[in-house]
User: Which sequence fits this backbone?
């Protein structure tokens, strides 16, 4: 079993910055892709940014140039640096990882519990 614990959310003024972290723990052999999703009230959950096991990032058009995703495989952690935040970035942010617990195990999908990001003056 793998658990994901997120941190770093909070209240920030427009134009401000936040850094989200998500650390995986448990029985982990390897982690494949990692990503951050968000869900605003009344809206569907959407992919914000993803990063492959090779470190190749991808971003939603709405956050390109403002958000940066990175990973530290030694710590089983994924980060999301969010700059130039806008009120429309307000949402609950969830991390997601594909991980296997043993060499021959299939990759299972895991989610964090979510962290609230509120951008408001």
Assistant:
């Amino acid at each position: 079993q793998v658990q994901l614990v997120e941190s770093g959310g909070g209240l920030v003024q427009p134009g401000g910055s936040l850094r989200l972290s998500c650390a995986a723990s448990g029985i982990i052999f390897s982690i494949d892709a990692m990503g951050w999703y968000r869900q605003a009230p009344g809206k569907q959950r959407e992919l914000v940014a993803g990063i492959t096991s090779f470190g190749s990032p991808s971003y939603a058009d709405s956050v390109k140039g403002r958000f940066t995703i990175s990973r530290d495989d030694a710590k089983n952690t994924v980060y999301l640096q969010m700059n130039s935040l806008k009120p429309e970035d307000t949402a609950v942010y969830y991390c997601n990882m594909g991980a296997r617990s043993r060499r021959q195990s299939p990759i299972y999908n895991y989610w964090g519990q979510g962290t609230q990001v509120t951008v408001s003056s």
Notes: The mean pLDDT is 96. The radius of gyration is 14 Å.
